[in-house]
Amino acid sequence: HLLSTHRRLHVLEGAESSNASAEKDGVDDLIMLLASIAVAVKSVGSAVRRRDITHGSGTESEPLERVANETWIDCLLYSQRSCILVSEDLENPVVVESNMQGKFAVVFDPLTGRSNPPCQEMGAIFGVFRQMSGGSPVIEDVMQPGRQMVAAGYALYGACTVLFLSLGSGVHGFTLDPALNEFILTHENIRIPYCGHIYSVNEGYSSLWQPEIRELISRFKTEVSLNGKERTLRYIGSMVADVHRTLLNGGIFMYFAHQQWPNGKLKLLYEASPLAFIIEQAGGKASTGLERILDITPTSVHDRIQVVIGSYEDVELVEQLYKGPS
Ligand code: AHM
Question: Whose C-alpha in 66, 92, 135, 306 is 20 to 30 A from the C-alpha of 177?
Answer without folding.
Answer: 66
